UniProtKB/TrEMBL annotation:
GO terms for cellular component: plasma membrane. GO terms for biological process: regulation of protein targeting to membrane. Pfam families: AsmA (PF05170). It comes from the Bacteria. This is AsmA-like C-terminal region-containing protein. Residues 4-659 form the AsmA domain.
Length: 862
């Protein structure tokens, strides 16, 4: 029996299918022809259709006519109908009732639009692009339409993946939404149309002027609408709009008789923060878009007036609510507030106002409270108060800041701020002074690290006073890396600086420091690992450490202006160690001025003033320096032997006094551009020693001194000039423990040397055996030969080449010049002697009557 039933069912299905196919085949040309012809009577604009098919299965049991790739440009009177075509639909299906079709009546019961766009446009002249239907102006036209066998008895209209855009250019209004799966039904009784809409939408945005609302909000719609055609009124009997797990209940009336007028009520008894944010402009709601709430949140309001500019009023609030981000662990809890929003008397964003009053909440157990008032979203006016304490760690867990890697410590604040944001950002001092601010801020043991920095800020504690855009530092101390600082002074224009990317900040303060590590501050890297438990021990260790050359980088913000009075106990930079540094430091427009700097270093005292211009990639610097009693070997050690190893700290000892004027250029990595370096230095070296200096050791074979590897000399003075990558040392006389030696010459930056020496002749070695025998015979015959110590003859030598390959040789040109000079001097002396002799012959000598009685010589004695 079952087998027979299955056979009969299969036969019936086969028969029905065959019938449908047959009917479709028989009527398809008539259906398509009739549908196209009748639609052309309704539509006044050309419609482009790529392909038309008839199917018995697509909308079974009805027969479907499918238009594919439909393009409707819109009403030709609209100036932008080409830019915004009325419709561009992938497929449109018309469903015909099968029984009516067999009776000769073509009834369209269902229309399905899939995969496309619909644009409803009012251009600048308010010409709509959707007036595409022909006007039936005569009774004959109307009666002919009534006799047509094609009728639209729409029970369902479906939208599948259709983007719907409404744009009123003249009023600067723009609505964009995606209809994913929306179904509508229509029931007509006389002049009353009952419309039901149900489905899922996604609001891309509702734009009014410069503000956007409902940005990227998923919506579910379930509405019952009544349209009174004779009165041209749309009554919203009930409309439930689902938004973020909140159901908005909307009811009211929309009157189209003349100018469109709205009279709507909106209410949500069980709402959440996402719903509240949806009714705010996107510029205000965006930072909180992903946050969620729990607890009791209410919302109610009204929209009343002309559709192009209605009055909007909303009241909202919460009791015992929580506010959190789904990805973060921290919550803002126990939230209580009362709020309101209105678009004001002008019904625009210019008169809009958002008010949050009696705000109370807890963050990780700490109490917070305050008020917030925002007006005029085109030129935002802000009035807010805040009182409370919170930990930085809890705050970042609740609302991460992209600039910070991590933070900890406590902040306590009681502040008030009032004024226009544009006034705070204004470059005019008069406008900035129109804003008001006051209050106090205290930070306790704050530590944090910036995202693109390896130097953490540690143990910051202090108190600030807020007053009219300025921040007075009553006290602030802490560490940047290993560098300690203690500030007292004022941050001028601090609020405008924090709120903008263009405004400068002026810091006038006294800076006290136990220790500053310039290697860290200029490189952005820690010298050694930090230990917050014993920062003092770490800085002491870092003071002793010699830091290798770092990839330094000097960047001065054009927004930064400083006036510091500095008092630094210890300062470290590469090999430099300074104590008791005092100076005045000012920064303005990326130009640095250092005045009255003094520091104890290298066993003496250094004084300096300098000017640095960092406005360009090439940094220009110039200044004056004075050294008092500094150890020469320490100076060479600090300056790393001035980037050469010919004359080093191991060769020199003594104390130096010097004054120097210098100029140079550097790049951003603080590398000296040597062609730009020039200086003029007057130096005195006292108690000097020159030890194991190779050129002096190579001179030793020429002189009668065996201890040139340990040369001690009296005070020497000289003027040293650096220019064009060459050090010029004028000839100077060195009074040493061995002999008087004159030395001078040049030393280039590529280590080419040209030094000249003058060594007294008496020190010359008699190197040959013949010469030594001749001296010995003269001593035997005549005794010790007397020497003229007043003006000994000199041996002229020169050292030329590179520091790695140079030669000691006789300086013939200098010897000739000396000989010529000596001959001139001797000629002058000879002339003077002859002149004196002639004068002696002119004298008359009178003999005395007395005479001297000489004792006779032995030969004349009797």
């Amino acid at each position: 029996m079952l087998k027979k039933v299955i056979v009969w069912i299969a036969a019936a299905i086969t028969l029905v299918s065959a019938a449908l196919v047959g009917i479709t085949y028989v009527y398809q040309d008539q259906i398509v022809d009739r549908l196209v012809r009748e639609l052309n009577q309704y539509i006044a604009t050309p419609v482009q259709v790529k392909h038309i098919t008839v199917s018995a299965w697509r909308t079974f049991p009805d027969i479907a006519v499918s238009f594919e790739q439909i393009k409707i440009p819109g009403h030709i009177g609209s100036t932008q109908s080409l830019e915004f075509p009325l419709a561009d639909i992938g497929r449109m299906d018309f469903s015909f009732n099968l029984l009516s079709l067999l009776q000769g009546t073509y009834e369209v019961e269902k229309i399905v639009l899939s995969n496309g766009r619909v644009n409803l446009l009012l251009d600048a002249q308010r010409n709509p692009n959707y007036h595409i239907f022909r006007k039936q102006s005569t009774s004959e036209d109307v009666s002919s339409l009534q006799k047509n066998p094609l009728h639209f008895q729409l029970e369902q209209v479906h939208l599948n993946n259709i983007q719907v855009r409404y744009r009123d250019i003249s009023r600067n209004q723009h609505v964009l939404a995606n209809a994913h799966q929306v179904a509508a039904s229509l029931n007509v009784v006389g002049e009353e149309y009952t419309i039901a809409v149900n489905g899922a939408l996604e609001s891309q945005y509702i734009e009014v002027g410069e503000d956007r609302y409902f940005v990227e909000q998923p919506l579910s719609v379930n509405t019952q609408l009544l349209y009174y055609n004779d009165r041209q009124q749309l009554a919203i009997a009930s409309a439930a709009v689902g938004l973020h797990d909140t159901q908005l209940n909307i009811n009211g009336l929309i009157d189209h008789a003349g100018e469109t007028v709205l009279d709507l009520k909106v209410e949500a008894s069980q709402s959440n923060i996402a719903t509240l944010l949806s009714v705010l402009p996107a510029s205000l709601a965006r930072p909180w878009h992903y946050y969620r709430t729990t607890g009791d949140v209410y919302l109610k309001g009204s929209i009343h007036g002309p559709a192009d500019q209605p009055a909007v009023q909303f009241l909202f609030g919460s009791q015992h609510a929580s506010f959190f981000h789904p990805e973060y662990q921290q919550k803002l809890e126990n939230i209580q507030l009362n709020g309101s929003f209105t678009n004001g008397t002008e019904r625009t964003s210019r008169t809009a106002e958002l008010s949050l009053k009696n705000i109370k909440a807890t963050l990780d157990g700490e109490q917070l409270s305050g008020d917030l008032l925002l007006r005029n979203f085109r030129d935002l006016y802000l009035e807010t108060t805040f009182q409370g304490s919170f930990s930085m760690q809890s705050f970042l867990a609740f609302y991460p800041l992209p600039q910070l890697q991590w933070a900890q410590g406590m902040i306590t604040a009681d502040v008030f701020l009032q004024g226009k944001i544009s006034d705070l950002k204004s470059s005019e001092l008069r406008r900035r002074r129109q804003t008001k601010s006051s209050g106090t801020i205290a930070v306790n043991d704050i530590s944090f690290a910036l995202q693109r920095s390896h130097l953490p800020f540690q143990q910051l504690s202090g108190a600030f006073q807020v007053k009219d855009n300025n921040l007075t530092i009553q006290r602030l101390s802490g560490y940047v890396g290993h560098s300690h600082f203690s500030l007292k002074g004022q941050f001028r224009n601090a609020i405008a600086y924090a709120l903008t990317q263009t405004h400068p900040i002026q810091i006038d303060a006294s800076l006290r420091s136990d220790f500053i590590d310039l290697d860290e501050l200029l490189s952005g890297n820690l010298s050694t690992a930090l230990s917050s438990e014993n920062m003092a021990r770490n800085t002491a260790q870092d003071w002793q450490m010699i830091t290798e050359k770092q990839p330094y980088r000097l960047e001065i913000s054009p927004r930064l202006a400083l006036n510091f009075e500095c008092d630094v106990q210890r300062l470290k930079f590469r090999r430099f160690r300074g104590r008791n540094l005092q100076s005045k430091l000012s920064v303005q427009e990326q130009r640095v001025r250092i005045r009255n700097l003094s520091v104890h270093t290298a066993g003496g005292q250094a004084y300096a003033s300098a000017f640095v211009n960092a406005q360009h990639e090439t940094i220009r610097a110039e200044g004056k320096t004075r050294l008092d009693g500094m150890h020469v070997d320490s100076v060479f050690y600090i300056f790393e032997n001035f980037q050469q190893d010919f004359l080093t700290a191991q060769h020199l000892k003594g104390e130096v006094d010097a004054t120097s004027d210098w100029r140079l250029n550097l790049n951003r990595n603080l590398s000296v551009q040597y062609p730009s370096l020039s200086s003029e230095t007057y130096a005195t070296i006292r108690k000097g020693q020159l030890n194991s200096f190779e050129p002096m050791q190579r001179i030793a074979p020429y002189v009668d001194e065996a201890q040139l590897d340990h040369l001690r000399f009296d005070d020497i003075q000289n003027y040293i000039r650096i220019r064009n990558q060459e050090i010029y040392i004028p000839t100077m006389l060195v009074h040493s423990n061995l002999s008087d030696i004159q030395i001078g010459g040049t030393h280039t930056f590529n280590n080419h040397i040209d030094y000249r020496f003058e060594v007294p002749m008496r020190s010359i070695h008699l190197r040959s055996a013949t010469a030594r025998e001749r001296v010995a015979r003269r001593k035997k015959d005549f005794g010790e030969i007397a020497q003229d110590d007043a003006a000994p003859m000199k041996l002229f030598l020169k050292a030329q080449g590179t520091v790695d390959d140079y030669k000691i040789s006789y300086d013939l040109p200098a010897a000739k010049a000396q000989l010529k000079e000596n001959l001139v001097e001797e000629k002058q002396e000879l002339k003077q002697v002859l002149k004196n002799k002639r004068k002696a012959h002119s004298y008359e000598v009178e003999l005395s009557d007395e005479y001297l009685d000489f004792e006779p010589s032995p030969q004349n004695r009797p």
